[in-house]
Structures are given as structure tokens and as C-alpha cells.
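Q: Hi! First time doing this. I have a protein sequence and I read that you can turn it into a structure. Is that right? Here it is:
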Amino acid sequence: MITAVAFSARNVSGFALFSPMILAVVAGMIYSNVLGTPAHAKAGIAFSQRRLLRFAIVLLGFQLTLGQVVSIGAGGVGIVAATLGATFVFTIMLGRLIGVDAKLAQLIAAGTSICGASAIVATNIVTDARDEDVTYAVASITLFGTIAMLGFPLMAPMLGLDQHAFGLWAGASIHEVAQVIGAGFQNGTQSGEIATVAKLTRVAMLAPMVVALGLMARRKSGDQTAARPPMPWFVAAFVAVVALNSLVTVPAEVKSAMALATTIMLTMGLAAMGLQADISQLRSRGLRPLALAFSAFLFIGCFSLMLVKFV
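A: Yes, that's right. Below is the predicted 3D structure, encoded as C-alpha cells:
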């Protein structure tokens, strides 16, 4: 069932603005809420939500090298890091102020500030939010990331951004990797290349962010081992893969295969989450989480633009 939903989403995605991961969530939600999820599928859903998603995060490491990070310069890395940190803190604080559940706010913060659905999945391994919260976060992040992908290139001339500046802005602020690539190359080849590197630099910051969230969770729970920062195995493996990809020349065919495997695993994992989602529970969350995601979207766009233009 999960495989059918995932591959249907992948085939349809070629004709849509949305990635197969997003379409898989929607397809899974429609299937489960219209037809119902059979009991015999539960084990496969659980496997896809946990094992496959963790392996997918590890394989993301094949898309990044330390040399790519260095190529945008210390200033570019600083802009990416400052934007990520400020957006995450802003989203958490605003979520607390307007009464959004803390775990859902963390998922929205991670998805906005780091790398969309992949960051939401990785963060949830630490935060352990409800499946409905994960689905809500993915849906809201996708909505505003798509708006950014379509709208930001139109704003470049009005804002006086050259290709380098626009690429850095897009990479530092747009949510999903695919959305960044789409927006960046729409404004030119140089812009696309810089946007991609800036975005992958954000992806590299996923590992320390997950570790920091795990440490915060331990301290909040009063765990006696809180002084020892947690290192989930998939985070350590992600760092190791990035290091390997930086030190060894991995054949292009292998990288292409890893990218395809990553997309398939993420798609299957998110299809499983969609199959677990109860639309009535999503409605019960109300509009506050959506308002939070919108506010985070505005903040990351404005904050990163300010840094790109004036720093």
C-alpha cells in the first residue's frame, strides 16, 4: 500500500509544482480518511515512518561536501547560520506566545529554518510529536515554500538583487531543497548554483540542531544524563557521510542513485504518515499553527534579505 501511494505520487509529481514527498502525504491522507487503513498495513507503516526515514536523512549527506560550504564564503555561511538560528528562536517564542503546542511549534520552526519536510521528519525523531502534527507541519511548510519559490524570483528586480545576492537569499530562506533549486535557476545559472550551495549549507546544520533539541528535551524531562549531549545514530551517520563525500570522490552515478533512493525513502515515509493522519484531528488544531508558519515564512524572508543587502 505504502509503495503504491509513494510511487503514484512520484509519477504524478512530474506534472505538478509539488514534490513527490508532498503529494505522498496528501495521497496517504485521502486514502486513509476516505477508504480507511487496513490493520495488516500497520507494521509496514511503522517501518516506513521510522527505519526508512532515518536512512533517508543519512543519505542526504551525499548531496553535500565541506568544499561546497566553503565556496559561498564566510559571509555566506554566517548569513545562513544567523538566519537559521534567528528563525528557529522566533518561531518557538511566537508559538509559545499564541498558544501553539510546543512540539508542533518545534516542527514548524525546523521545517522553516532548515530544510522543509526532511527537517520536520528528523526533528520529530527527537520531539516525538503526533503524526497529525507532522502532517500539519509538512503541509503548512509546503504551502509557504511554494509561495516563496514562485514569488521570490519576481521580486529580485524590484529589490535590486544581482544573481549572487538573490541566490544567497533564496538559499537562506526558501524551505525545501527542490523549491530553492526551482527559484534559484529561474533567476539565472549563477543564482541557481549559489542558492543550491547555500541551501545545502542549511541542510548540514540539521545535525547540530537535532542534537541541541535532544539535549533540551533531556533537560526538560529531568533526565540525569542530560549533561551528555545525545547523538542519535542517524545524525552521526549523516555527519560521517558528509565527511566521506568531502574526502572521497564519489562517482556521479552513485550520487545520482543515492539522491533517487533518498527521495523514494522520504516519499514512502511521508506516505506512511499521511496514512496515519486523521483529518478531524488536523482541523482541531485550528488556524494558530498556520498563522505561526506564515509568520515564520515572513520572518525568514525579511531577516535573510536584510542580511544579504546590508551585511
